[in-house]
Amino acid sequence: MSTQPMLEVSGVTKRYGGLVAVKDLSFSIRPGEILGLIGPNGSGKSTAMKMIMGVEKPTSGRITLDGAQISGLPSHKVARRGVGLVFQHSRPLNRQTVLENIKVALLPDSLIRLFADPEVDGKARAIAERVGLGHVMERRPPTLAFADLRRLELAKAIARHPKLVLVDEPFAGLTASEVGQFSELIREFRTEGRAVLLVDHNVKSVAALVDRVLAMYLGEWIAEGSAAQVMADPTVRRVYLGGALTTVARPESSFKDVNAALQVENVEVLYGKAQALQGVSLHVHEGEFVSVVGLNGAGKTTLFNAISGLTPYSGAIRWAGAPLRDLSAAAIARLGVVQCPETRELFGDMSVRENLDLGGHLLGGQERSERLEWLFDLFPILRSRQSQIARTLSGGEQQMLAIARALMMKPKLLILDEPTLGLAPVILETLSKALERLRATTSISVLLGEQNVTFALPHADRVYVLDHARIAWEGPPGRFEAEAAATYL
Ligand SMILES: Nc1ncnc2c1ncn2[C@@H]1O[C@H](COP(=O)(O)OP(=O)(O)OP(=O)(O)O)[C@@H](O)[C@H]1O
Ligand SMILES: [Mg+2]
């Protein structure tokens, strides 16, 4: 490994009005090195990446690439110097095919006339194969599975052979085997002598991949060293890693409602010719916490959208004995069946407070302010950011706002679709405690969809496994490991 740093970040600060998102941050990365950047939600990781890429301008400080200053350059010039960014969220051209998306990334704007060039075509195909998109090259992004969309972002980033690759949360929402495949691709970057800056909340996978870790908190450097050293650092443990999740499942016989509050019977959903749900039946008792686990594409979101009135289906779905089929999504929400969707669906141009007030618009004044207080205690960051525009929140802060907005509606049945996406471990602990408090003090029912069983199992009284559009297993969480884990996940 060369000892000369490729990237040097020296004393960089970024302010947004009164908020200091990144404060006097310094670090460097050598060629052929993978540096992991960790820290709680909102600690400035994405902001640091955006400043390196030239998407955001540092308020002060200096960034150099191979000795030449790049801070202050616009992002297309930074890209030309050899930096590529894989964004936290996918943003493909939806009307072009996968192959065309890669070609667009291959060609600077002035050379777009070379689009049909066989050499460009060959290069784009090679990149598609390399990241595992070979079988979907001719498809358009809206038809792709979640992991393939992430692969496409990776393909676009490497199209111009960057010497420095910035990767923001590549593992979020991926299954264990997909995380393995992505890690392998990132390892290849290292072998090729590229430098990599990697941000992700999947601590184990980051630790297994990186050469070195830097931890941030409130915009500042707090620790740096080997993964083992940084993870053992007391401050990192306190502000980022948090403690273990422990809860106790209650047996189904302890729920007194004979007819379960939510009944899903033989539900089928077709998207064109593709069967998204096949003969799905499940139930949730009043006060019961039920987890639906399954890989990406198994049908979890489709199931939740059917319950919430967002997707047409055949079969029956009943809430408190009454069929939901002919009700609008809004009417279903008024009955107390509230979904916090995977896609968050925040009002991006409205403030944090406005988003919460919209959630609580059906509550009386007194009840609404009590609820708001409770949520601000739960997620203190939302209290201090009430007037911030939602779309400028960090990834994890947006997730907290989406969960808080759903809770603002005082749901009787709360449907959480992949709530752990993008949340720091310490916030998972907060969310876990909040769910426990709801479980102990209210009769709320929770239906939780996750491919991350480490969160789904501790919070379930009962578990269903959804596999290829069907319910493949049902039972208490204690039996999951022995009976279902190996076959379905
Ligand atoms: N335009 C903006 N105006 C005000 N505050 C902003 C703006 N952009 C970002 N911030 C704030 O800066 C802080 C750092 O955000 P950043 O996206 O860098 O966090 P992060 O470490 O990537 O977090 P996460 O793990 O949740 O993605 C956050 O508190 C965020 O709300
Ligand atoms: Mg981020």
From TrEMBL:
- Give start and end of each ABC transporter domain: 7-243, 262-489
Q: Looking at the keywords, is Oxidoreductase present?
A: no
Per the UniProt record, which residue ranges are transmembrane? none
Among PROSITE patterns, the record links this protein to: ABC_TRANSPORTER_1 (PS00211), ABC_TRANSPORTER_2 (PS50893)
Q: Name one GO molecular function term.
A: branched-chain amino acid transmembrane transporter activity
A GO BP term here is: L-amino acid transport
Key word Transmembrane present in the record? Answer: no
Could you list this entry's UniProt keywords, alphabetically sorted: Amino-acid transport, ATP-binding, Nucleotide-binding, Transport
Q: Which Gene3D superfamilies match?
A: P-loop containing nucleotide triphosphate hydrolases (3.40.50.300)
The record ties this protein, via InterPro entries, to: AAA+_ATPase, ABC_transporter-like_ATP-bd, ABC_transporter-like_CS, BCA_ABC_TP_C, BCAA_Transport_ATP-bd_LivF, P-loop_NTPase
Q: Which PANTHER family match?
A: HIGH-AFFINITY BRANCHED-CHAIN AMINO ACID TRANSPORT ATP-BINDING PROTEIN LIVF
**Which family does the entry's similarity section mention?**
Belongs to the ABC transporter superfamily.
- What name does the UniProt record give this protein? ATP-binding cassette domain-containing protein
Organism in which the protein naturally occurs:
Alsobacter sp. KACC 23698
